[in-house]
Amino acid sequence: MIDKTLLSPLPVEFLRRLNQMYKNNTEEILKTFKNPKPTTFRVNTIKASVNEVITALNTQGFESEEVSWYTKAFILRSKTLRELTDTEQYKRGQIYVQNLSSMIPALVLAPNPTDKVLDICAAPGSKATQLAVIMNNQGRITANDSSKNRIYRLEANRERQDARSVRIVENDARSIWQKYPEYFDCTLADVPCSMEGRFTYDDPDSYKDWSVKRLKDMMSLQKWILRSAISATKPGGTIVYSTCTLSPEENEQVIDWILKKEKGNVQVLPIDLPNAPLTQGLVSWADKTYHKSVVQTKRVTPSSLMEGFYIAKLTKLRSSIPKFLTND
Q1: pLDDT at res. 325
Q2: Annotated catalytic residue: which of 121, 186, 193, 244?
Q3: Hey, which end of the chain has fewer CB within 10 Å, N or C?
């Protein structure tokens, strides 16, 4: 029996679905929506070494714990987020405050320094600037967004992080492939979603607009962004699809759809990120059974430390668009 104090104020239908997805873990997940998560951050090694930053923070009384699966990421164990953002290390762009779950997609994409990379829904820039760190500020990262207001934040983060390899463009993510047909070595599609993994009791705005209809509306958008990401990626390239939501409609069902729609052009790859708290994708939901390879996709179950997330890694096996449209 779930503690009734945990049930309010989240939508009743969301609670029913959560219990169907996670069964015996539902109460633990609800506690994570009620209690604030610790501040987590990664070091921007474009500007400073990990040792330099952590030593400087230590001298100011900050205690931090290294994350076992990402040596540039840390959990703040003393002082507050406000105090951290007042430090010179933050102001100089030597650190980037980001939930740990949000750091996973770029690590899974794992681009090489010489790659041409597309971040198809890039604002506010957390993943684009992380990709720049992974690539040692080399190669070319095309950071796309469709909103001028969000692009302002993207530009500000690029400048603060000194991510010179990031070039910002403004396009509808669903049609950007027409400008860059099969051009990129790899693409990150961290798509707009219902953000169920970030629900917070103290922030009614995080869940007030939730509905099953909205999930289905988001799924339609996500499908076409993912298909655009695949069309913008070269044969042999890698595509990572991710969301910060729990809904199977926006996660496994989108991957199941693209596998059918692309008819052998793409396949799911296993995700190998040792020590990261990942669980396998759902094999079915409601009356749907998904393609058997969807089990290789990964979920991050909401916890006291991490927001709920979903990550799928795909490889493009062959061209998916007419030859005359490619950049060859």
Answers
A1: 62
A2: 244
A3: N
